[in-house]
Amino acid sequence: MITSTVNRDRLASLPRTQLERLAYIDFRLYFLGELRRADLIERFGTGPAGATRDIATYREIAKDNLALDPAAKHYTPKDGFEPVFKHDPLRVLTALSQGFGQGLDSDPLSLIRCEFPAALSLPKLDVLAPITRAIHGQKAVRLTYHSTTSGESQKDLVPLSLVDSGVRWHVRAYDRDKAAFHDCVLTRMKNVSILDGPIPPEQTPENDHQWNRVIELELVPHPNFERPEIALMDYDMPDGVLRVRARAANVGYMLRRWSVDCSPDHSLKGKEYTLWLRDPLVLYGASNAVVAPGYKPPVAVNASRVG
User: Fold this and answer.
1) All domains of the chain in start order, with CATH
2) Which InterPro entries does this UniProt record tie to the protein (predicted)?
């Protein structure tokens, strides 16, 4: 969380709540280029005196990081600014695009002008809440489920985890009727109730082999991509390979989300395919490999080469 240039002894003496406020100071200086006492007051509900103390503490830790602009009455980063804290890029982008949650009833407020795709499919909260309670409490649920193949039915599920496929949210769960682990779409659930009683061992995450199997993926610039050096920049692969780990239960969703060509002969066309899965055989046996772009099971590949 903290960079090596920071006085660790001083920071170690501070409570976590103050560290969070100092990290916010660091964030605003680094990514927005300005900081006011009012920013701390609005974000954390502290008084003016408390905000002043936090800024003074930050200055004590990183005295060369900020300067007061008397005309604008706010602090700005100095030319030699070095962040005190490590900022995760995904968290930074989330904060910049959706804010920090400025109120119980307010919509997300971006900190700068941002545009990102709207979610077209979101679960209803009266479905999501009992599902997440069941996951947290290790309970089963009974619900009405609408399947594209079998229509409406009553199901007893043991929810294990939420998964974002990039298109919709679903639940990895043990289906007691089918005696197997499956993916169930949240938006297709209704009338969820939590069941009492312990979960048998065979229905726990430890026995979901697809969930526990982790596949090592090696992604490389697509051989048909005209500017492979751009792919190397986009995906930060200094040795020409992007190594990613994914669960067998989710790997197809992830590869589709990333638009990775998984065909054995990198035959997919389109500018969206800047990456190719170097060894598609690693997907063999993964339950949802079929949704990976261009994936063909080894049997199908061999059959296509005969005759």
Assistant:
1) 8-98 (1.10.10.10), 125-207 (2.30.30), 213-305 (no CATH)
2) CapW-like (IPR016634), CapW_CTD (IPR059020), WHD_CapW (IPR059019), WYL_dom (IPR026881)
Taking the C-alpha atoms of residue 133 and residue 139, their distance in angstroms, rounded to an integer, is 8
Task: Sheet containing 151-164: give its strands across.
Answer: 180-185, 169-175, 151-164, 140-147, 189-195
Place of tokens 């949802």: 288
CA angle 294, 299, 302 (to 5 degrees): 85
Q: What is the pLDDT of residues 111-131, one digit of tens each?
A: 999 988 888 899 999 999 999
Q: How much is the pLDDT for 64?
A: 87
What are the residues facing 193 on neighbouring strands?
Answer: 142
CB atoms within 10 A of CB 241: 14
Eight-state DSSP code of residue 278? S
Rounded Cα distance between 134 and 131, Å, is 5
Q: Which of 212, 297, 298, 283 is nearest to 252 (CA)?
A: 283
Q: Residue 4 — pLDDT band, cuts 50, 70, 90?
A: very low
> Comparing C-alpha atoms, which of 261, 253, 262, 169 is closest to residue 210?
253
> Is residue 304 pLDDT above 70, yes or no?
no
Using pLDDT thresholds of 50, 70 and 90, give the confidence band for residue 8. Answer: low
Q: Quick one: how far is CA 61 from the chain centroid? A: 32
Short-list 259, 249, 260, 240, CA closest to 289 = 249
Secondary structure of residue 225 in the 3-state scheme: coil
